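R.M. (postdoc): so does anyone remember the format we settled on? I'll just put the structure tokens first.
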């Protein structure tokens, strides 16, 4: 992979972060029920972290000479709280895999500074996966 291909992957990650932001905004509003009340507060934390992730990705794309994406991946429709949390877990799990790859690719491309900028996203996304698994009783 070359830097141009890496930037394209970062932009795909950015689109997923935009999806996460919209998805969390929607799910904060629709997740209901006594068993999920504490989860809503956690989703709000995730939401602010996703915005930070998008900012970091945008900065890295620009740093590497690219133009940050401005489009969003589609947000799946859900009909209840459990479906919403399942959709969030699915998206966070996908992002976790992508960030693992991105840190490895940045290192292979000789971009240790970029790898270090992405590492906190990886760590926070792993926490999101654990939080959602716990909320879903997995």
């Amino acid at each position: 992979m070359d830097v141009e291909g890496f930037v394209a992957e970062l932009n795909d990650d950015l689109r997923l972060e935009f999806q996460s932001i919209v998805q969390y905004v929607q799910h904060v509003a629709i997740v209901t029920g006594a068993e999920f009340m504490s989860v809503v507060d956690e989703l709000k934390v995730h939401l602010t972290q996703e915005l930070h992730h998008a900012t970091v990705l945008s900065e890295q794309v620009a740093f590497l000479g690219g133009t940050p994406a401005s489009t969003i991946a589609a947000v799946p429709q859900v009909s209840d709280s459990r479906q919403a949390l399942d959709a969030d877990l699915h998206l966070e799990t996908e992002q976790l895999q992508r960030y693992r790859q991105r840190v490895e690719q940045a290192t292979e491309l000789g971009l240790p500074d970029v790898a270090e900028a992405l590492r906190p996203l990886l760590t926070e996304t792993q926490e999101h996966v654990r939080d959602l698994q716990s909320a879903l009783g997995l």
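R.M.: ...and that's the designed sequence above, right after the tokens. Also worth knowing: The two ends are 36 Å apart (CA to CA). The helical segments are 3-30, 37-63, 81-108, 112-135.
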